Amino acid sequence: MAVSTKFVLRSQSTLSDSNFPIMLQIIIDRKNQLVSTKKYSTKEHWQTREQSVTRNHPKHKEINLLLRTITSEIDFFIISEGKKGNRPGFEEIKDLVRRLTGGHTEPERRKLFVLFDEQIEALRAQNRIGYADTFKSTLGSLKNFMKDKDKELLSINTAFLVKYESYLIERGCAITTRSVYFRTFRTLWRNAIRDKYCPESHYPFKEFAFNKYNKPRTKKRAISKAQIDLIAAAQIDSKNDILINARNYFLFSYYCRGINFIDLASLKWNNIVEDELHYIRAKTKEEFRFKLHPAASNILEYYKNLEGNSDAGYVFPIIYKRHTTQQSIRDRRQKVRTRTNKEMKAFGVSLGIEKPLTTYVARHSYATALRRNGVSKENIGRSLGHDSLKTTDIYLEDIGDPVLDDLINSTI
Hints:
50% of the residues lie in helices and 11% in strands. It is α+β, with helices and mostly antiparallel strands. The protein folds into three domains: 3-106, no CATH class; 112-213; 225-409, Orthogonal Bundle (hpI Integrase, Chain A), CATH 1.10.443.10. Helix 1 packs antiparallel against helix 2 (90-101), helix 4 packs across helix 6 (175-194) and helix 8 (241-255) packs across helix 11. The mean pLDDT is 87.
């Protein structure tokens, strides 16, 4: 397709004296980019049809001469390259304009929602379904805040971020969820700068108080060993398959070194080797191999010949042959995890356990039980698959340091 150019007055930019930059718009294959001429005009002095300024402009001779020169030079360049069988690209035309004006490149103007949609689509194409969903949920939050009115990146500033934060806090959004939203938003912005959709100088997060979102403190999630035993010993109606499964998932996680739900749902019978569990953690790709706790072995026995169990070789009745795509598998896991958490919360209340029970509670409770019995933080972190001791500290912060407490008290 042909290369075309035209001069436009970028009236969206606001200067104190009401002058606006005159830009050269380059159009190739229905895509367009802008480059500055380093000349300015008011709306009254700009002639859109003629692509020039009126005689009333104080610098009309200088500006119009430059615009005519740019046009003729570009036309000559396009014809010359055409004779060679080449078609000039955006950067080549921009470089020509820069040589004539000393101007700077203007970033392609993009809107926030559009960039989010493009990022989500790219992640899905890479089969990174979970990360795509994180961007999708962040986009949904921003759309609610902005009442579905998209904005250009250059119109978003630090004040926007502060208002968005206040909006989330007023609606009771937990700091862990806010952390996900803001870290995802910041990643999108950095990608936009990398892709030249936004200048490096326009970075609203620079002046935003972001530290609290880097490692947010979570609510206390662990329960005691006595409460774990209470859950394991409680009687459940044999016909209540949903609650039986929920409890089994919860306890299997606890007895299997805090295995998270994604890995639990992905276990197949070939992951059980004699009396050991072998698997690779999805999040870190780290290999785990350890001897099964007797209580975990009992749970496995329950599912070995269970009617209606997975027909795809999985240990637990979560994923079946009908779940053929990564998206359907993810949706199924999320559905079962949500149901499990709902059932366990109600079950916990019936047992007099005040803390809401979730699959995360099982993982945190495992770590807490080890620490209370003198296991080092390093070994706890290693068994959980943590790549940083800071992450382990977050798991254990609600119990302090009982090992250190005992050491100090016995010494003094």
